[in-house]
Amino acid sequence: MHSSSPSPAAAASLRELLDSLSSEQRRNQDLLIALAFALRSFTNLHRFLELVPVVASRLVQMDGALLVPFQADGRVWREQLQAAPFDDCQELLRQLASFEMGHSVGFASDQDQLLAMDQIVQRQMASKGIFATSVVARGQQRARLYVFNPKASFVWTDIHLRHLQLVADLTAVAIENDLTLKEVRRHERVDRQLSIGAEIQAQLLPDHCPIIEGVELAACCRPAFQVGGDYYDFMPTRPELFGKRREKGRWALVIGDVMGKGVPASLLMTMLRGMLRAEVLSGLPPDRILHDLNQLAQEDLAHSHRFVTLFYSDYDPKTRRLRFANAAHNPPLLWRAAERSVSRLDAPGLLIGLQAEAEYGCVSMVLEPGDVLLYYTDGVTEAPGIAGERFGETRLIKLLEEFCRKGLDAQKSLNQLFARLDGFVGRDHQLEDDASMVLLKVNEELMLPSMSSSMT
Question: Please, what are the domains in the chain?
Answer without folding.
Answer: 18-183 (3.30.450.40), 205-446 (3.60.40.10)
